[in-house]
Amino acid sequence: MSTLRITLRAGERIFVNGAVMRVDRKTHLEFMNDVTFLLESHVMQAEDATTPIRQLYFVVQLMLIDPATASETRVLFERSFPALMAAFSSAAVRSGLQDVAELIERDRVFEALKRLRAIIPLEDAILAAAATVDAPAHMGSVSLPERAPVAVGAR
C-alpha cells in the first residue's frame, strides 16, 4: 500500500472518516492506510446545490462526510438517480451519471464525487443553452440549436 501525502493551508478543513479537522498552520498529512477524506475545497454547501447534478453531488458528498447515515443517504441517491437519468438526453451526461451509479454501487464514493465534478460543467452548458431559448411555460418540447445538449425538466 502506498502512502498518501496531502498539504493543507492554515485554516483549511479536511473531512476524514466523518470527522472535521481544521489546521491552524500549513500542515502536511500522510495517510498510511485506507482513509475516506474530502478536502474543504471540494465540499459543496447546501445553498450551492442549485441544479440537479449539484444536488446529486451534495447527496453523494453526504455519504462520504457522514458515514453513520450513508445507508439512508444511499436510499436518497437511489430514488433520485432514475429521474435524473430521465431528465438528460446528453450522451455525455448520461454516460457520466451511469459511471457515478456504478462507482456508488462499488462503494467508491470519492471517485463518484470526482466524476460528478466533471459533469457539472456539462450541465452548466446545457442550462445556459436552454436559457437562451424562449421556452414555453410548460417543459414540453423545447427546440434548441442543433448539437446543443438538452436537459428536459432540469430547471
Overview in brief:
With 155 residues, the chain is α+β, with helices and mostly antiparallel strands. Helix content is 45%, strand content 14%.
Overview of the molecule:
With 155 residues, the protein is an alpha+beta fold. The chain folds into 2 domains: 4-41, no CATH class; 44-131. Helix content is 45%, strand content 14%. It has 4 helices and 5 strands. It has a 3-stranded antiparallel sheet, with no helix packed on it. The chain has a two-stranded antiparallel sheet with strand order 1-4. The chain is globular. Mean pLDDT is 82; it is low at 135-155. GO terms for molecular function: mRNA 5'-UTR binding. Keywords: Bacterial flagellum biogenesis, Repressor, RNA-binding. One of its GO terms (biological process) is negative regulation of bacterial-type flagellum assembly. Belongs to the FlbT family. InterPro entries: Flagellum_FlbT.
The gross shape turns out to be globular
User: In angstroms, what is the radius of gyration?
Assistant: 18 Å
Q: Could you list the spans in which at least 5 consecutive residues all have pLDDT below 50? A: 135-155
Would you list the SSEs in sequence order as H and E? EEEEEHHHH
Q: Sheet bearing the most strands, described? A: 3 strands, antiparallel
Percent of residues in beta strands: 5-15%
What's the N-to-C terminus distance? Answer: 44 Å
Q: Residue share in helices?
A: 40-55%
What is the number of strand segments? 5
| Average pLDDT metric | 82
Structural class: alpha+beta
Strand order of the largest sheet: 3-2-5
Q: How many separate domains? A: 2
The helix tally amounts to 4
Family: Belongs to the FlbT family.
Keywords: Bacterial flagellum biogenesis, Repressor, RNA-binding
GO molecular function, one term: mRNA 5'-UTR binding
Function: Has a post-transcriptional repressor function in flagellum biogenesis. Associates with the 5'-UTR of fljK mRNA and promotes its degradation.
